[in-house]
Amino acid sequence: MVTPQCKKLAEVDEPDGEFIDANCDGIDGDKLKGIFVSPAGVDTAAGTMSAPVKTIGKGVLLAIAAKKDVYVCQGDYAENLLLEGDINLRLFGGYACADWKRSNQRPLLKPKAGVPLRIKDNLKEIVVDRLEVQAPDATTASGSSISAWISNSKRVTLRQVQLQAGAGAPGENGVGSQAVLAPPPKAPDGESRPDVSCSCATTDALCFVALGFTFASESCVTPTGPQTLYTGQGGDGANLKSCYLGSSLAGGMGSPGLADDGANGQPGTDGMAGVGIGAFTGTEGYVANNAGTPGALGMPGKSGRGGTGGPSGVLLSASNGFPDAWFRGGRGGYGGLPGCGGFASSNGSAGGASIALLSWESKVVLEFSNILTHDGGMGGDGAPGAPGQPGGQPGAGGFYGALAGQKGGNGGKGGDGGPGGGGPALGIVAVGVAPDLQSVLYGIGKGGLGGKSVPNSVVPDAAAGVAADYWPVDIRPEVNGSAGAAGMAGKGGT
Questions:
Q1: Euclidean distance between the first and final Cα of the chain, in Å?
Q2: d(Cα 101, Cα 25) in Å, to the nearest integer?
Q3: Element (H, E) at 56
Q4: What is the pTM of this model?
């Protein structure tokens, strides 16, 4: 049997869509102008057809240095491919590893983590032809899966490629705060009988003597710093106005310290549900910033008012039974310390995104290709705030009819944390510059469900993430006479 002879059509053979060996060197392309990559190769090899390198990244380095193309045969490549800086590069897949014949079978670029294909800061031209790029599912909370991310590049042509993003990771649920169940310490009791007396030796002498001590304040330690809480001060007992009037005055109502009578603190404001789609940036790609907001700390209660002081007492003479001295009545009990406000709970974080192609300020040409995503991550649920601390118990009244103080008010409930928004599922995200799309087939997953708010809360559940084939952001007309924004692509792909 006679082997058919190759009919030479040209001196230069560019890899083409019909896989024609135009210069009869045995492959579609020029074996002298290519760096060859095979899963069976070794990265210390020369990169020739007979001695291919093992990784696409090594092939790219050799091709840039030698000003050659990269030819990649079928197989799996578990690596992250970074094309950075001003380079002219063409990468062609579809080759069979056994004989380097070419077909539509694409090699698979599938790393264990991260973005498989990253192109950045290139003012020249890059072409990627017949390559399947598959991003793994995101695994960290609110993490995103992006198949290809291109930024600040003049022109990138993706032809006959398949870009597939994995699932976005769910957000974390908010964390509930621990309640402070024990009340503050009991307030001091009023003094029963001060060692102060008023002699009747001086007619109509005023015999009021101040006790001159205060009850120490307590502090709540909160996420925003210490909060000082004060007890209501107990009332002083009365003393005789005149030794011969035979009457006494009751002590006045104690000072309320810094607050009203034992009122409960106001609850902290609940956090809000996450809104929006998240953010796209030139340095981070996608940021899941549509998280819920945390609740606010509950307000402390009010201190109890001090009890009324007792009436003055009398000391009768042992000889004649007449008053000899008058004693101040017992001090009223101190009002109870207020309870600290309940701690607020944290918010649920947002779900991560599933994005096949993110183009940031770059001109991307996408031809005869498939754009696939999984689902966006679910948003995290909000968490309930802690109840406020109970108010403290008041002190008992002193001797001679002094009254107990009032109980301190309870602290207000801490605010509930808001739920996080669901992550988006987006085929192509274009920021600044519209891509040129020709015969692109989409398969888009669902936006992640929004997180749930705390039961019986007035805060609604967070919104689900959006899902779309194409998501333009701040698209501007192109300059230098090039075309404006492209229309939506029709069906096609391979």
A1: 36
A2: 11
A3: helix 56-66
A4: 0.82
